[in-house]
Amino acid sequence: MPKLRHSDYYTEPRIQELAAKERAEPGFCRRVKDFVVGRHNYGSIKFFGETDVRRLDLESLIQFNNREVIVYMDETKKPPVGQGLNKPAEVTLLNIKCFDKKTGRQFTEGPRIEKYKEMLKKKAEDQGAEFVSYDPVKGEWKFRVSHFSRYALKEDDDEDEDGSLVEW
């Protein structure tokens, strides 16, 4: 079974469900369809297709931090593209919100949000990802990747041209 001990992380299907399915249908964990790993209040990753989750130490492989996700923190453990978790996936990052740094007010619509959405599209593209969607009310940004590296926004990218704070 994959290992996941941190209580704020989760999988879909849950580890207990995977264990039950493996007992009922030996080999199930070699081909888990659309496997999801997430961290409450930070985001999630949905791995497309079938994923072999046997013996994966998920907490050493995947780390969610504020406004970023890192898969294979240790580059020496990263398998070739297409193997393990180094495969196509959809990433959802939470707490991606646009604030006016002078007033602290969160923007949820209008020209600032359109500009912010364009910046997110560019950031995804710059990191080799494909923008999927942005929900400014929920602060939820989705993008697709063909394989994994580190996906994040650098601190110096936090301000747009007119000085408003871009909160990742």
How does the SSE layout of this entry go?
Blueprint: E1 9-12, H1 15-24, E2 32-33, E3 36-39, E4 43-47, E5 50-51, H2 58-61, E6 62-65, E7 68-71, E8 89-93, E9 97-99, E10 106-107, H3 111-126, E11 130-135, E12 140-145, E13 150-151, E14 166-167
Antiparallel strand pairs: 1-3, 2-5, 3-4, 4-8, 6-7, 7-13, 8-12, 9-10, 9-14, 11-12
Would you kindly provide a brief summary of this structure?
The chain is an alpha+beta fold and 168 residues long. The chain has helices spanning 15-24, 58-61, 111-126, and strands at residues 9-12, 32-33, 36-39, 43-47, 50-51, 62-65, 68-71, 89-93, 97-99, 106-107, 130-135, 140-145, 150-151, 166-167.
Report on this model:
18% of the residues lie in helices and 30% in strands. It is of the alpha+beta class and 168 residues long. The strands form four sheets. Strands 1-3-4-8-12-11 form a six-stranded antiparallel sheet, covered by helices on one side. The protein has a three-stranded antiparallel sheet with strand order 6-7-13. Strands 10-9-14 form a three-stranded antiparallel sheet, covered by helices on one side.
Give the SSE string: EHEEEEHEEEEEHEEEE
Q: What's the tally of helices?
A: 3
The helix content is: 10-25%
Overall average pLDDT: 88
Instruction: Provide the structure class.
Output: alpha+beta
Widest beta sheet: strand line-up: 1-3-4-8-12-11
C-alpha-based Rg, rounded: 17 Å
**Number of strand elements:** 14
Strand content: 25-35%
Low confidence ranges:
160-168
Our measurement of the CA-to-CA distance between the termini, rounded to an integer number of angstroms, reads 33 Å
Q: Main beta sheet, described?
A: 6 strands, antiparallel
- Morphology call: elongated
